[in-house]
Amino acid sequence: MPNTPLDIDRINGDITYQEFLVGFYFPRMQFHLTVDDNGIVNCLNKDSYLLPNRPCLISPSLTSSWPCFRHWTVQSPSGSDPLPNWQYLSETYGAQEVSVADCNTRDFSDQKRTSMSVAQGIETVVDAKSSQNLPYIKDWHLVLQSRTGLSNEHDKIPYETPKIFRDDWLNNSCSQADDFRFCYVGVSGSFTPLHRDVYASYSWSTNVVGVKIWRLFPPETAPLLRKFPSNRRSEGIYDVRTVDPSIFTGWEEAQRTMVVIRQNPGETIFIPSNWYHQVENITDCISLNHNWCNSVNLPCLYAAMKDEVEEVSAAISDVKDMMMRHASGGGGGGDDDKGWQVDWLREVDKLVKIDAGWGWEHFFQMIEFNITAKTVVAPGYLRPADRFVRERVCGVVEDFVTRDEYALLPEVKLVVDRILTALFAI
């Protein structure tokens, strides 16, 4: 497959949530849409809903009113696409803390990172233009850090989440372990290695400045992106531009599924659950990104959690054997057997939190918080019907109550039981 962007259809930025739900990806290439006299979108293909879990690219009109387009950019001398306003960013947000990746230095599946202030990060980016360095400011928690210390409202809130993405459970949680709203700033040539988004979440990303190339792989291709396809913890491809097919034997087949998308200034890309992707900055770029989830992809997140628990359990199976021997050596049984199982489940959960960022308790607290009417941030017309939400949550809960964690971890069971009660009110 040639490593060039595909000529794909783009969706108008005035898209409504209903249009996003029924048909949001490559409209004319995949299916046809009609609109009735009431403005309701009807899809001629019954499978063309958000559920197909496919990407899309949305035109600049979706985000054209954002203040950051006015304040973070300057006109280029040639009058072409705007350039980053480095001085403004440094003076306004300079004291905030960021992580800066060195794209020339690999660190396992990621890149070597250094923590510094935004001002230092911007200086590093600007200085790199006269060298071979490829710095990339990543995972900048701009929204979280801008809540204090800024006087201008357009600096505190430089953008607004588009309506079609507001049904966001991940960033609407009372027990939020992290913030999943980021700004990225990179020079031409900087990139993010091949990866799947955290927790198998959705993501959306808007280019404020610059052009990116996205290389996407559908979920079913994931095994082919590993050194040993049958082993989920096997080494994965780092850079799809330099793959050795003698090591990654599934690469040639995986490459046939690759979708290559050019994202221009102002455009917004939607990346669905479990789609692996690599991002390359063709020019100097500034982008805004949210990882998010809701009832639609909740089963994907739940499956990812179960996989993580299974993999951690297998990795420390010797600890389980030791706990079992210790319990049986005490000559107990009964409560002693239950005791070691509780210790084992808590040990696994602790390691899952370290590795994945959350455990079962936080996962279900997120669900509980978002199905409680008083905490819902997206009005009815911006989210699926209540019946759909109830069915998705019920499917997850019904499976979880058969697991040992529900029976043996009271702090988790308490949250799940509250969810069961809350479901009757939906």
TrEMBL record:
Residues covered by the JmjC domain: 146-309
PROSITE patterns in the record: JMJC
Source organism, top-level taxon: Eukaryota
GO molecular function: 2-oxoglutarate-dependent dioxygenase activity; sequence-specific DNA binding
SUPFAM superfamilies referenced in this protein's UniProt entry, alphabetically: Clavaminate synthase-like
Signal peptide residues on this chain, from the entry's feature table: none
A GO cellular-component term linked to this record: nucleus
InterPro entries in the cross-refs: Cupin_8 (IPR041667), JmjC_dom (IPR003347), JMJD6_ArgDemeth/LysHydrox (IPR050910)
GO biological process, one term: positive regulation of translational termination
Pfam assignment, any one: Cupin_8
Protein name per the record: JmjC domain-containing protein
